[in-house]
Amino acid sequence: PGFPLTDAPIGQSLRLIRVRTQDPDRLCYLGSLGLYPEAAIVLRERAPFAGPLLVEVAGKPHALAHEMAEVLQVVVAELSPV
């Protein structure tokens, strides 16, 4: 289930479900941004032509290279019942 962050709609609340890399340097970098499974993410901007993506993680903006965003599997976040 899920889809790459690169395919996510802009402005949608998302939840990270899987990181599809075993590269320790990439995993360390993503972890430093707070990008762990179950992290809440909002895609704010997507540059054209496989450019970087601007994401918000825990209220903080981060720029991610397209190739980094491709390894992040996300789902649309469920809304909490009121």
Write structural notes for this entry.
- The protein is α+β, with helices and mostly antiparallel strands and 82 residues long.
- Helix content is 16%, strand content 38%.
- It has two helices and six strands.
- Strand 3 and strand 4 (53-57) form a beta hairpin.
- The termini are far apart.
Please provide the ordered H/E string of secondary-structure elements: EEHEEEHE
Q: Report the radius of gyration as a whole number of Å.
A: 12 Å
Low-pLDDT parts are none
Q: What is the general shape?
A: globular
Beta-strand proportion = 35-45%
What are its keywords?
six-stranded antiparallel β-sheet, alpha+beta, 2 helices, 82 residues, globular
Q: Brief overview, please?
A:
The protein has 82 residues and is an alpha+beta fold.
Write the layout of secondary structure elements.
Layout: E1 3-4, E2 13-19, H1 24-32, E3 40-46, E4 53-57, E5 60-64, H2 66-69, E6 72-76
